[in-house]
């Protein structure tokens, strides 16, 4: 059965893993990895791990790809449905959403040492996004489609749960501007929530949600200013400071925790999929040109300038190391597709800032890369 969606839902570059063995081996009798996931080795930094989530007509699976073993290892097998979101909680523990029951979503964790699974959460409705704090003590998740019809944000810590009611989002997954993101700040003091759909005509702030909460008491620390920032979206934290980057009608803006004002990084820059480098020197992003072709670019934070990568169509970059990014190859749509005339081909490529060249990775049917799951901090 050919795969119609593989998602690289979590990626970690952990230096300590390079000194370890390849991690737990696949147990005898475990299903073989899909043939759409090539096990060919490539030249990549030692000690990285990737979570692959696959979806076929009949089932969905979560695989761990460990660079030391060069082979996907199945962690979970679910029934038919969309590819589940999955993230690392730590280097030895992952979590994913099980939505096989249309009435209930479960967040499951898997211990990579024992392969034991645990139900962390069961909720009535759909959990389209979740995030664990870096210390693993807090769990934040979005809940859509509950019995009362309201969208809510939930934050759990120490046995206590805070619930915030959100505005309704009319439709999901209809274009590149549809953004769902939960992300804790590097020191876990703040939680970013982006739950937006911003169309070309979108001027009404009630169509989306964007806020930053203080993790200590779940009070609102930051809302983008009204007016030009009403449709703020496409945001990410710096990797080592409580600085937030996001996009609005002016361009790319910045907010530093504890301040009441916002700064402007680059005017007229309409970016997508922003991702910060481990050394906080660069931001990678997707830029869509006048012909609606997406291309990956880099923003040099030290010299305040944007530079290109390759000329070919690419999207959804994430940083693997300070000078290496992964991104998706894009290809022209064979028929109508959402978000423009191109869509991901399924191939993942690595780009080196040192050599200015790209190389292929052993994944052939990937359709999304998630910056939120990068484990290296």
- In total, the number of strands is 29
Low-confidence stretches: 1-6, 9-46, 200-207, 371-377
CATH architecture annotation of one domain: 6 Propeller
Task: Give me the strand/helix succession.
Answer: EEEEEEEEEEEEEEEEEEEEEEEEEEEEE
Strand order of the largest sheet: 4-3-2-1-29
**Main beta sheet, described?**
5 strands, mixed
Mean pLDDT: 79
Characterize this entry briefly:
It contains no helices and 29 strands. By secondary structure, the chain is mainly beta.
Task: Describe the protein's architecture and organization.
With 377 residues, this protein is mainly beta. The protein has a domain at 272-364 and 373-377: Neuraminidase (6 Propeller). Helices cover 0% and strands 49% of the residues. It has no helices and 29 strands. The protein has strands at residues 5-13, 48-55, 60-66, 71-78, 86-90, 93-98, 104-111, 117-124, 130-132, 138-143, 151-157, 160-166, 178-184, 190-197, 209-214, 220-222, 233-237, 243-247, 251-256, 263-267, 272-276, 282-288, 294-300, 305-308, 314-321, 324-332, 342-352, 357-360, 366-369. The strands form 7 sheets. It has a 5-stranded mixed beta sheet with strand order 4-3-2-1-29, with no helix packed on it. Strands 5-6-7-8 form a 4-stranded antiparallel beta sheet, with no helix packed on it. Strand 18 (243-247) and strand 19 (251-256) form a beta hairpin. It is globular and about 45 Å long.
């Amino acid at each position: 059965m050919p795969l119609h969606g593989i998602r690289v839902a979590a990626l970690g570059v952990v230096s300590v893993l390079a000194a370890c063995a390849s991690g737990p081996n696949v147990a005898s009798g475990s299903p073989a990895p899909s043939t759409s996931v090539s096990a060919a080795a490539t030249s990549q930094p030692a000690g990285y791990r990737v979570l692959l989530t696959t979806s076929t007509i009949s089932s969905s699976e979560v695989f761990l790809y460990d660079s030391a073993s060069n082979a996907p290892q199945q962690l979970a097998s679910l029934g038919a449905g969309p590819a589940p979101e999955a993230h690392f909680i730590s280097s030895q523990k992952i979590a994913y959403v099980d939505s096989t029951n249309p009435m209930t979503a479960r967040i499951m964790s898997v211990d990579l040492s024992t392969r034991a699974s645990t139900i962390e959460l069961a909720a009535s409705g759909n959990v389209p996004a979740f995030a664990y704090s870096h210390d693993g003590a807090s769990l934040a998740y979005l809940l859509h489609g509950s019995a009362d019809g309201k969208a809510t944000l939930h934050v759990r810590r120490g046995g206590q749960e805070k619930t915030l009611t959100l505005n309704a989002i009319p439709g999901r997954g209809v274009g590149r501007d549809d953004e769902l993101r939960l992300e804790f700040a590097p020191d876990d003091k703040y939680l970013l929530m982006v739950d937006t759909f911003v169309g070309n005509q979108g001027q009404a702030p009630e169509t989306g949600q964007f806020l930053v909460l203080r993790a200590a008491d779940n009070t609102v620390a930051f809302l983008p200013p009204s007016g030009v920032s009403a449709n703020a979206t496409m945001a990410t934290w710096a990797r080592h400071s409580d600085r937030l980057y996001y996009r609005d009608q002016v361009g790319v803006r910045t907010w530093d925790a504890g301040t009441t004002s916002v700064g402007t990084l680059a005017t007229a820059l309409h970016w997508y999929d922003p991702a910060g480098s481990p050394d906080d020197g660069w931001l990678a992003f997707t830029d869509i040109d006048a012909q609606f072709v997406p291309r990956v670019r880099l923003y040099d934070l030290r010299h305040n300038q944007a530079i290109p990568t390759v000329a070919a169509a690419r999207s959804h970059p994430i940083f693997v190391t300070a000078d290496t990014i992964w991104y998706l190859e894009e290809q022209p749509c064979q028929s109508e597709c959402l978000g423009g005339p191109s869509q991901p081909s399924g191939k993942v490529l690595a780009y080196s800032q040192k050599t200015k060249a790209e190389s292929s990775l052993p994944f052939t049917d990937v359709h999304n890369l998630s910056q939120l799951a990068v484990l290296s901090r």
